[in-house]
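Quiz preparation item.
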């Protein structure tokens, strides 16, 4: 296939397993893709943090020969990681934020997330002593108004009536969107 390799960056409380429905849809379209299994997800070592996720994704991107489309997906955190990881990477052609945060440069994480939190999210999330955040993943819904506010920062916006985990709920549609973007490179 001509075009770019798609790098998928999952959100918090996930892993590469979250692509179990999306992967076959990407492969059916002949897309070259790789998942970035973030070091912080599932880590028990409290010295591992968001900067490790950023470094991991940056190293993965730079190891790919040719153009790359990087997609921060669902659960919001993936967008934060790709924003930091792709800065200065010469082979990155597009960033795609799919139900993901889109922070401004140097914007603090808690400022980005403040508008996104439902009352249930705020009540159920708690800052741990080691600086990580814990919450019940069943409670963590992101306000659509926050996602629309982040989208105003983008150069191109496509809004779909999807939930916060579209790789699982709408894998065919997500794969088609990524294929269109990757092939246009």
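Solution:
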């Amino acid at each position: 296939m001509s075009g770019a390799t798609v790098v998928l960056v999952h959100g918090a409380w996930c892993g590469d397993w979250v692509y179990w429905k999306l992967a076959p849809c990407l492969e059916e379209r002949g897309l070259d893709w790789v998942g970035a299994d973030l070091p912080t997800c599932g880590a028990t070592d409290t010295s591992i943090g968001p900067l490790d996720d950023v470094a991991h994704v940056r190293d993965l991107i730079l190891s790919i020969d040719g153009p790359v489309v990087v997609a921060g997906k669902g659960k919001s955190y993936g967008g934060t990681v790709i924003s930091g990881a792709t800065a200065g990477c010469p082979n990155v052609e597009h960033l795609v934020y799919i139900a993901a945060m889109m922070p401004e440069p140097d914007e603090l994480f808690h400022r980005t997330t403040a508008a996104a939190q439902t009352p249930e999210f705020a009540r159920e999330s708690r800052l741990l002593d080691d600086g990580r955040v814990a919450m019940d993943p069943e409670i963590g819904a992101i306000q659509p108004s926050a996602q629309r506010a982040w989208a105003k920062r983008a150069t191109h916006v496509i809004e779909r009536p999807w939930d916060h985990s579209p790789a699982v709920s709408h894998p065919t549609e997500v794969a088609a969107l990524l294929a269109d973007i990757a092939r246009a490179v």
